[in-house]
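Working notes for the structural subgroup meeting. M.R. asked for a predicted model of this chain before we commit to crystallization trials. I am recording the input and output together here so anyone reviewing the notebook later can reproduce the run.

Input as submitted:
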Amino acid sequence: MSNWQVCVSEMDRALINEFSIPVIVHQGNDHRELKGVFDNPSVLSSIPGGGYVSSQEAELYAKDVDALGIEVRDLVTVANKQWIVIKPPESDGTGLTKLVLGVNNGQQSPSVEIRY
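Returned structure, recorded in token form:
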């Protein structure tokens, strides 16, 4: 690993330790707790004819070792709200994995793949 990668990895560990919150991962009948940094932005874009379009993708950053085995459609509870993993987890190569989350409304298909 280069010096830069080592520094980024150390910074990531420090951020996780300082800003992480408890998270519960639900996989079937199994539940496990891990720590992660939760980012829940809201993006507004204006439309030239008037109005706004809102897009929101919440993200959870966890240590690679804690994120092992998490897959699309797994449920995650963060700050007493249940989310669903909507994209495959992405490791950044420095020891952190990004999980992209969507609001779980109970109506999502249990299948990862939808055929038309």
